Fold this sequence. Notes:
- By secondary structure, the chain is of the alpha/beta class.
- Helix content is 40%, strand content 18%.
- It has an 8-stranded parallel barrel, surrounded by 6 helices.
- It starts with a strand and ends with a strand.
Amino acid sequence: MSRIYFNEVATRDGFQNEPVFIPTEVKVSLIDALSECGFAKIEVTSFTSPKAIPMLRDADEVMRRIKRLPGVEYTVLVPNMRGAERALEVKADELNLVMSSSETHNLANLRMPREQSFAALSEVIRMVDGRTPINVSLSCCFGCPMEGVVPQDVVIDWAQRFVDQGVRGLTICDTTGMAHPAQVSRMVEALQERFLASDPSLQLTMHFHNTRGMGLANVLVSAQGGISRFDG
Length: 232
């Protein structure tokens, strides 16, 4: 049986939504405990502007204070060039770049059209120049709360543009928990055919939410389709 690789994202995706600032020492303690749990990766924090996400304003200090265990990769979310520079300074194991496959969501979330996001992230990829592995997370791949259906071909096309730039991994995100198993099965089949058939080394990760109670079912159908990496 092949291994399933989990990337624990609660310390970024969860902490950023907390109403009260979590003390740095508490974050560090939890991440150190998670390091003992067998995760392949831990998304420690986000190098976003402290004004945008004040809950993660201690990102640099957290990265410097955690105990890094062999066999665990410590990845961080990077929204722009300045974030990438900060992440490189603290020697993150991986940079996770983010944009949305939905134009409306990208405008609302990142305040710019998709093409502008792509251009900015492409600059980050060129600046990093292979010094640190890069993953790209595409949001709203299974539907947008504002736009509705996001065509599968649109997701595949954006993924292809990043693969063409040599990123190590892609994360296909069900950002608001809209996906259902039949839809996920079709997406997994298309991703396998387009990317993994020609490059099995590409790290393809699925990211689900349980908003409508479909989270575990979507993980199961992805694993049955050959996916071995999941955000958790």
